[in-house]
Amino acid sequence: MDKLLAGNNVAVTEDGYLEDFNQWSKEIASEIAAEYGITLGEDHWKVILYIQEQYEKGVPLSIRSIGKSGVVSIKEFYQLFPDGPLKRASKIAGIPKPVSCI
């Protein structure tokens, strides 16, 4: 299905994840984040870029792997992306829902 984000029609799954990473932009990320009441700051972008890099390498993501990455601690990850940090951060980063997310 299509969703209007940052003035663009983008294809999203039933859960709201982008179907095509190539449609992702910082503006789209900011708009998705705003839906959750999140204003993206420098630390958010560090996490988002890390998640995208891991996705492109085919590395499975988990909350634990984010915490061990050195980018942020698990506590900071939860503070940056409350109520399901990996789901929200992945959605904002424009990647498919991680397998480790229920």
SS elements, strand count: 2
Largest sheet: 2 strands, antiparallel
Helical residue percent band = 40-55%
Residue runs with pLDDT of under 50 for 5 or more positions = none
Q: Report strand %.
A: 5-15%
Active site: 101
InterPro entries: DsrC-like_C, DsrC-like_dom_sf, DsrC-like_N, DsrC/TusE
GO cellular component, one term: cytoplasm
GO molecular function: sulfur carrier activity
Summarize the structure.
The protein is mainly alpha-helical and 102 residues long. The protein contains 5 helices and 2 strands, in the order E-E-H-H-H-H-H.
Description:
With 102 residues, the protein is mainly alpha-helical. It has one domain (2-93). Helices cover 47% and strands 8% of the residues. It contains 5 helices and 2 strands; from the N terminus they run E-E-H-H-H-H-H. The protein has helices spanning 26-35, 42-57, 63-68, 74-80, 85-93, and strands at residues 2-5, 8-11. The chain is globular, with a radius of gyration of 13 Å. It starts with a strand and ends in a 9-residue tail after the last helix. The model has no long low-confidence stretch (mean pLDDT 92).
Defining traits:
globular; 102 residues; 2 strands; mainly alpha
How would you summarize the topology of this molecule?
Layout: E1 2-5, E2 8-11, H1 26-35, H2 42-57, H3 63-68, H4 74-80, H5 85-93
Antiparallel strand pairs: 1-2
